[in-house]
Amino acid sequence: MISLALPKGSLERRALELFATAGLPVRRRSDRSYRGTVDHSGVSHVAFYKPREIPLVVGDGTFDLGLTGADWVEETGAEVEVVESFDYSRNTERPWRLVLAVPSGHPARSAADLDDGVRVATEYPNIGRRFFREAGRRAEVVVSYGATEAKIPELADAMMDVVETGHSLRQNDLRVIETVRTCGAQLVANPAAYADPARRGVIRNVALLLRAAWVGPAHVLLTVRAPADRLAEVVPAMPGQSWRAGADLADGTMVVLQGVLPRREVPETIDALLSAGAVNVTESGIGIFATGEAG
């Protein structure tokens, strides 16, 4: 059996929704409880931690599996195995961004325009120091423990923080000059647990259920008919997850391709496929399915 750490706070609601959709509802005495159970025979218990803590408690073996943000996996440097990635954020079906922002009246248009010694407030000091080192700029990183926007101008000249819609930045008269990272949720496992055949089987089963639950509502299946002599133009326009389904039964000169992509990318992708020479494109939903590994 495996132990599971789930995020408390900003990622909590979406994590619970994902698990419920996957047929793995988390049961606890109240919304304030930090302990729970999951309807899966292979999961012994569930505990809730801040997203920044989860890579650490999974990395050190306290928990076998955890769901957190890719930003905290990178920031902590914890040694974990990334089992699955989900590009959703707290309020949208898109990943969130870790950005560098300055007051709206600041002349800088990129990190290269900031003076050496610039004070940057952030909850991500390790990522921040690495970013400025790679950018060839010397920055004083001011560690923030929340409400990072409030650190400007008294404690910092700029800030590095996560955004989804950018509403909070606009409300505080700040402007993005660089996107440092694009991040989504990640299911991470303890390396020793993942190397153990019995626990790996449970981990992969849970991951497949979550993947199917996330892909179903947020993605679509495109079926594309294209002339065989236009494949060289059509294939590059297909989604990243694509395959050749075979030849068209009604017309031997036509080829059928299929691919899975996020719903938000459908209009642009269909336009690109038709422009590349596809004859028609059919969009359909994706059912929830999963297969498990033997324990």
TrEMBL record:
<keyword id="KW-0460">Magnesium</keyword>
<feature type="domain" description="Histidine biosynthesis HisG C-terminal">
    <location>
        <begin position="219"/>
        <end position="284"/>
    </location>
</feature>
<protein>
    <recommendedName>
        <fullName>ATP phosphoribosyltransferase</fullName>
        <ecNumber>2.4.2.17</ecNumber>
    </recommendedName>
</protein>
<dbReference type="GO" id="GO:0003879">
    <property type="term" value="F:ATP phosphoribosyltransferase activity"/>
</dbReference>
<dbReference type="InterPro" id="IPR001348">
    <property type="entry name" value="ATP_PRibTrfase_HisG"/>
</dbReference>
<keyword id="KW-0808">Transferase</keyword>
<keyword id="KW-0067">ATP-binding</keyword>
<dbReference type="InterPro" id="IPR013820">
    <property type="entry name" value="ATP_PRibTrfase_cat"/>
</dbReference>
<comment type="function">
    <text>Catalyzes the condensation of ATP and 5-phosphoribose 1-diphosphate to form N'-(5'-phosphoribosyl)-ATP (PR-ATP). Has a crucial role in the pathway because the rate of histidine biosynthesis seems to be controlled primarily by regulation of HisG enzymatic activity.</text>
</comment>
<dbReference type="Pfam" id="PF01634">
    <property type="entry name" value="HisG"/>
</dbReference>
<dbReference type="GO" id="GO:0000105">
    <property type="term" value="P:L-histidine biosynthetic process"/>
</dbReference>
<dbReference type="GO" id="GO:0005524">
    <property type="term" value="F:ATP binding"/>
</dbReference>
<feature type="domain" description="ATP phosphoribosyltransferase catalytic">
    <location>
        <begin position="50"/>
        <end position="200"/>
    </location>
</feature>
<dbReference type="GO" id="GO:0000287">
    <property type="term" value="F:magnesium ion binding"/>
</dbReference>
<dbReference type="InterPro" id="IPR011322">
    <property type="entry name" value="N-reg_PII-like_a/b"/>
</dbReference>
<comment type="pathway">
    <text>Amino-acid biosynthesis; L-histidine biosynthesis; L-histidine from 5-phospho-alpha-D-ribose 1-diphosphate: step 1/9.</text>
</comment>
<keyword id="KW-0028">Amino-acid biosynthesis</keyword>
<keyword id="KW-0479">Metal-binding</keyword>
<dbReference type="InterPro" id="IPR013115">
    <property type="entry name" value="HisG_C"/>
</dbReference>
<keyword id="KW-0963">Cytoplasm</keyword>
<keyword id="KW-0368">Histidine biosynthesis</keyword>
<dbReference type="Pfam" id="PF08029">
    <property type="entry name" value="HisG_C"/>
</dbReference>
<keyword id="KW-0547">Nucleotide-binding</keyword>
<dbReference type="GO" id="GO:0005737">
    <property type="term" value="C:cytoplasm"/>
</dbReference>
<keyword id="KW-0328">Glycosyltransferase</keyword>
